[in-house]
Amino acid sequence: MYEADQAARRLMQEDINLRQSVQDVFGAESYVNGAPNRPYLAKLVFGNPEKLQALNQLVHPAVFRDFEEWCAAQQAPYALKEAAIIFESGSQRQLHGVVAVLAPTELRIQRAMLRDGAERKAVESRMAHQLPQEILTQKSQHLIFNDGKHPLIPQVLALHQRFLALAVHPPPYLTA
Fold first, then answer.
1. Which of 32, 51, 117, 140 could disulfide-pair with 100, CB 3.0 to 4.6 Å?
2. Strand partners, 2
3. What is the pLDDT of residues 112-122, one digit of tens each?
4. pTM of the full predicted structure?
5. CB 167 within 8 A of CB 77
6. 99, 78, 81: which is closest to 166 by C-alpha?
7. Nearest-angstrom CA–CA distance, 79 and 40
């Protein structure tokens, strides 16, 4: 599975052109010892839509290229891409379908705080830049309910079977 957020972090550190572009736009302090200064960048962009868009316009194309290269190297019948902002970034155009993983807001906040060691306000700020689950549900072709009430394994196995069938006759890429 291709994890877009991890890829973005890696590319921001390893891709010399991306690193230079970020520094050109956000200043030398956007990197410390060759690594992205994530707290500095987060403080700049979350709460400033123009700066967030500027950062996204630098990072997303690099991630799109990296994803295409990754896909070309895969031997499996299908590949998955995990990303928090599939539609917001436009990356759905590279995909045959989107699986939305849904959970109640409070549960999502708690999980993100535990996973990232982040403060509640930081998680809420990130979530404010994501599509509401109602819209995500409408735009997605497949749903998984990760709410602690619906068993996950049967849902995942059903999707796996569906994807194996689709691998034989893939639909066109999404465009919207």
1. 140
2. 81
3. 999 989 999 98
4. 0.83
5. yes
6. 78
7. 34
Domain spanning 1-74: which CATH class is it, in words? alpha beta
Residue 102: band (very low, low, confident or very high) from pLDDT cuts 50, 70, 90: very high
Closest alpha carbon to 41 in 57, 23, 66: 23
Task: Tell me if 1-74 shares its fold with 76-176.
Answer: yes
Strand 35-36, strand 31-32: pairing: antiparallel
Q: What CATH number does domain 76-176 carry, 3.40.50.300, 3.40.50.2300, 3.40.50.1820, 1.20.1070.10?
A: 3.40.50.300
Between helix 49-72 and helix 4-14 the angle, nearest 10°, is: 100
Tell me if 137 sits within 8 A of 99, measured CB to CB: no
Sheet strands (E) in the chain: 2-3, 31-32, 35-36, 81-82, 99-102, 142-145
